Prior knowledge:
This protein is an all-alpha fold. Helices cover about 60% and strands about 0% of the residues. It contains 20 helices and 2 strands.
Amino acid sequence: MTPHQLTNVRAIRVALLDHGRSGGDFATGPPPSTLAAQLVENISASTKSSRSDENSELKGFFAIIQRVKDDPALLKTPEERVENNHMLLYVYARVVLDGIRLDDPFLDWAHVRTEGIKAINFLKFTIKETPLVLKHKVNGQDFMFRGQEPLWVWLLPQLLRLLGHPQCIELTEGIEGFLQYLILTVAQTRSLWDLAPAIMLYLRTTLSRLLDYLQNLSIVPTSEGILRDLSLPPDFAVSRHLGDDLSRLNQLTYRVERMPQALQQCLSLGDALSYPLLSGDVAFDMVSSFSESVVWLLDALVDMRSFQKRYESVFPGSPLHIIQKTLQIVQALSNKKGVGVSLRNKAVTLLVLLCGEMASSPDNSPMLDSTDEETRRTYCVALAAITKACIGDRPLGRLAVSKLVDETSLLYPEMQSETDIWRTTQTLRQVTATPQPEQLDNDLHPSKFQDEYVREAIEALSMTYKEPDVDPEDRTKRRKVLSTDHSAMSVLVNSIRESLGLSSEDDDNWANFEQQYL
Length: 518
């Protein structure tokens, strides 16, 4: 990033603060049309480019923005406001996002990360005000770096090229959040529903390209992790939006050159694609495109774990995230109406296999003393979800017992009892037993579990449990007490009997007692 570009970004930051809104809150403060107008006014004087035509373009936009700032009434219709916000996003992206040169050794990364977060929030705020800006297309040659593609196609590569970059890890959550916000906005805006198939295809094909590349056997894992010829998204996912003008194809794609970034992008794109199912928002039920990726996503999770194992010698990674994502899918499918049994079983089967693999791992097994609390909790909650799915499904139950009870018993014959892992394992064993007992052992009662989340997962099974075991002598005394009439006279008579050394009887007749004593 050049000194002039750094000045521009600092000016943007000042403008944000001057208008009384923090970078983390895009839901408050002035609308983008007001905010960006003064924002761009601050950066217009310092904006410079190596090309005079680029400078002229930005100066022209600054003049328009200034006029709107001076007279907001110039925007008379919703269409004019959309066009104005499109221009603001274009200028903002040109000045801030396009100014981030990932190959610049002198880049101030701390500054880039800070301004990247603010840029993401500004994009959200602008889209919130005018959602239709996402599908906006330009006419003629009004914008040097725009063509016939809708705005979202032009905007996404500028963010995705930062996703997972080693120097931009702090932006990962923000970019993932933006992708989810983009998808949700489309689902909640009827006039944007026609974008849903294209956006989901864009994300799916990008993830597919990553998976295909990483599973290519000709690629030998090395500690350097340098990747070659990995351009995203695939050309066909972009060219369909360009019409006959394919000359701009390279401007709408980005390159991933390091293995850690590719691995992170796989996880992040998987999270974005699973969001319509996991969010629980009913808006996603209105558009079929959002629900068509579940089966594909389950297969993608298998591929993710496959290449994760392949590269773990040089890029160690835990399977925990993939297991958690699969668990979330299993839970979401179990609560969703209209889901077929085969789809539910496919998800549960994958969860069984992933948990079985983790349990037998010499490094990541939840049975190890060195295992962290999150791993143990995830494993136990997963076992509870698997147990729930196995009720009434014997084939699934046999698979679960084989992988998660029998094999773990061989690997860890001295598994410590009275732990949550032991109790969830025994719960699975008893629920899948043939015949299934009417009541589970009292030691498996939800109140016995230590972790709150695991306890809630066990309670959701709605099982019945045996009464607590007591000492035989105490049991005899208890039966005797329960069978005794607890009337006031009976208590008095028996107290006197005990004082006189006589045997107590279930008799409150004072005359009988008097005759025995005399």
